[in-house]
Amino acid sequence: DKPIPAYRRVLLKLSGEALMGRGEYGISADVVERLAGEIRELVEARVQVALVVGGGNIFRGIGLAGRGMDRVTGDQMGMLATVINALALQDAVEHAGLNARVMSAVRINQVCEDYIRRRAIRHLEKGRVVIFAAGTGNPFFTTDSAASLRAIEINADLMLKATKVDGIYSADPFTDTSATRYTHLTYDEVIDQRLGVMDTTAIVLCRDNGMPLRVFDINKPGDLMDIAMGGDVGTLVDN
Ligand code: UDP
To answer: Which residues bind ATP (predicted)?
Structure first.
């Protein structure tokens, strides 16, 4: 008999940079394939998996805004970048043998489905991986905020934030050797100490709606599955 997972439904936030691998830009086929393999393990263990993917590997709205581009136009470009990443993930997840659906917060319905909450939940119940694209659909937001919002909307049991380090540290572990990792924090500690794991909007949404958040290293194979099985991996943020 297979072990029973600790969570019925999770939402995993992948930044655009998580798809780049060693590259400087764009999408690494190897990385996307590996991620799809880890997602398959979860689905095979009967965990319902929703994804929110960022776009920073392709475009960030703020990038050209500093050089005179209209911020709203830049953010719309950023949202379209997330659709590109979502399509790459959909393809990889289906190659891994699962069913997947991209649902976009802005209408691009010759390319993917529109985001409709009840339909998203139905897909999840049928074991399909749902990939939420185009963030919240609004400029001046981030895909982290979109991840918090969607996690709450679909009644996820846990939001997972994939990062390059294995949790939240007291300082940047890449530049500060004295940095230590927290195993548990409250939302208010994250905000008050400006720990910068996600923007404040995203944290506050989780806090005000009691959505627990676990921050972990996406580059450690198996950690995702450990978390799904209830493992104390990375940093847990709750009340
Ligand atoms: N974006 C937006 N509204 C949203 C989500 C994203 O306008 O709700 C735009 C914004 O320009 C952002 C870009 O899309 O810079 C890519 O998203 P993000 O920076 O969150 O991606 P990540 O850092 O996760 O790769």
So the answer is: 13-16, 56, 60, 163, 169, 172
In CATH terms, 9-238 corresponds, of 3.30.390.30, 3.40.50.1820, 3.40.1160.10, 3.40.50.300, to: 3.40.1160.10
Burial of 153 (0-12, 13-18, 19+ CB in 10 A): middle
Distance 133 CA to ligand 1 centre (A): 10
What is the CA(54)–ligand 1 centre distance, in A? 6
**E-strand stretches of 37-140:** 48-53, 100-104, 113-114, 129-133
Question: What element of type H or E holds 77?
Answer: helix 71-95
Q: Is the CB of 135 under 6 A from ligand 1?
A: yes
pTM of the entire structure? Answer: 0.97
Residue 98 contacts residue 90 (beta carbons within 8 Å): no
pLDDT (tens, 9 = 90+) of the chain, 239 residues, equals 778 999 999 999 999 999 998 888 899 999 999 999 999 999 999 999 999 999 999 999 888 777 889 999 999 999 999 999 999 999 999 999 999 999 999 999 999 999 999 999 999 999 999 999 999 999 999 999 999 999 999 999 999 999 999 999 999 999 999 999 999 999 999 999 999 899 999 999 999 999 999 999 999 999 999 999 999 999 999 99
User: In whole angstroms, how far apart are CA 29 and each of 59, 92, 108, 112, 177?
Assistant: 19, 8, 24, 21, 33
- What residue type is 187 in one-letter code? Y
User: How many residues does this entry show for the chain?
Assistant: 239
Domain range annotation of the chain: 9-238
